[in-house]
Amino acid sequence: MTTRCGFVALIGEPNAGKSTLLNAMVGAKVSIVTHKVQTTRARIRGVALEGESQIVFVDTPGLFRPRRRLDRAMVAAAWSGAADADVVVLLIEAHRGLTDGVRAILDTLRERGSGQTVALAINKIDRVKSETLLALTQAMNETFPFSETFMISADKGYGVDDLRKWLAGALPEGPWLYPEDQLSDLPMRMIAAEMTREKLTLRLHQELPYQLTVETESWQERKDGSVRVDQMIYVARDGHKGILLGKGGETIKAISQAARAELEEFLGRKVHLFLQVKVRPNWLEEAERYSEMGLDFRDGNG
């Protein structure tokens, strides 16, 4: 049998469902999923197998109009991920349709004109009527020459298998890049940090989730098979630290318990998780923080 292997970039506006689709494709949680926008910061790779094909997914940050250095670095990472891919999948939301943001993404795809295979995935199809869906499909394909169009619900799993099978056949022939049982090429330290950041994002409100970052400072394997994980949460202001800790430390305790439980499920073993909070007013301007997120600090230049 001929093996195939290649990279598939999932692109779209923030909250289009890219991380949910990635996790559904891979069959495990490798990408942060919340109801808040702009939660994926780095290109997160997940690896899926379909027949004789190994599909390496790149879950890019949502494409939006950047305002801050971090925003600009995220958008640059998204387009870089798309440029390196064998196939690009543009994910749009069925109920939002052809928005200004989607038009801007299509304009950039046209400008880049790399001759790449670009597929369209219309997500959250359970939110609209079939006639709306058909009209949207027609409008999208009149706007851009997509190789294929899929109607899916990443959350409920509708159409995900069809998309994965098509992608498997669209990849170039070649040897697999990763071991059969590997789900992601992200280091475990980064996956652990992302899991904690997801719990912070779900628990906290308004702007705070975008003003913090999580780094895994140490990872110690223990003789009993468990692992000790020490993480640092950086926040921009003293007031943020108080919100994060909560009354009597109850907020940070709840976040730690939730992150530990998910990490234990992911690793299949006991985890001892220790969180600390540090105020660093200028962390958004520190190159080291960007490296830890898998972003290029220079991409944030105006």
UniProtKB/TrEMBL annotation:
> GO biological process: what's one of them?
ribosomal small subunit assembly
Query: Superkingdom of the source?
Result: Bacteria
Output the Gene Ontology terms for molecular function.
GTP binding; GTPase activity; ribosomal small subunit binding; small ribosomal subunit rRNA binding
Q: Which InterPro entries match?
A: G_ERA_dom (IPR030388), GTP-bd (IPR006073), GTPase_Era-like (IPR005662), KH_dom-like_a/b (IPR015946), KH_dom_type_2 (IPR004044), KH_sf_prok-type (IPR009019), P-loop_NTPase (IPR027417), Small_GTP-bd (IPR005225)
The listed locations are: Cytoplasm; Cell membrane
Topology in membrane: Peripheral membrane protein
Is NADP a UniProt keyword of this protein?
no
Region (G5) location? 152-154
Q: What is one Pfam family matched by this protein?
A: MMR_HSR1
- How the protein assembles, per its UniProt entry? Monomer.
Task: Report the family membership.
Answer: Belongs to the TRAFAC class TrmE-Era-EngA-EngB-Septin-like GTPase superfamily. Era GTPase family.
Q: Which PANTHER family match?
A: GTPASE ERA (PTHR42698), GTPASE ERA, MITOCHONDRIAL (PTHR42698:SF1)
What name has this protein been given in UniProt? GTPase Era
Q: Which organism is it from?
A: Tropicimonas isoalkanivorans
